[in-house]
Amino acid sequence: RSAPAEDVVRAARDADAAGFIAGFPSGYATWVGDRGAQCSGGQRQRIAIARALVRRPGVLLLDEPTSALDSQAEEAVQASIERILADGSRRTTLIIAHRLSTIQSADVIFVVEAGRIVERGTHAQLADLADGLYRKLALAQGHAPRAP
Question: Which residues belong to any copy of the ABC transporter domain (predicted)?
Answer without folding.
Answer: 29-67
